[in-house]
Amino acid sequence: MRLTAVCQVCGVHDGVDVAERKYRRWLAGVTGLYVQEVWPRLSNQEREIIIAQRTNYYLCQKEWDEMAQQMEEEEAEEGFWDEGSPYEM
Ligand SMILES: [Zn+2]
Fold first, then answer.
1. What is the rounded CA–CA span in Å between residue 3 and residue 5?
2. Is the confidence at residue 17, as pLDDT, over 80?
3. How many distinct structural domains can be found in the chain?
4. Which of 8, 53, 76, 86 gives a 20 to 30 Å CA spacing to 25?
5. Which domain does 30 fall in, by range?
């Protein structure tokens, strides 16, 4: 079966194909398994689509990339202040 999710930020539609029985079992929480244990071969992004069926919250790959980039930039800024602080004191 095809699962779809809509990005909360840009509204893009993504989808992933999963075995319905497997999905129903996971959704019902029967197995108590994490998504990555039920679908070890799917990419992180495809797993996000599955998780979104429960949480109703989904971000597309672009959003994750931008978030990762922002974090890198923030880390770079923090690094700058770490280096700068001894000279300020
Ligand atoms: Zn998006």
1. 7
2. yes
3. 1
4. 8
5. 2-88
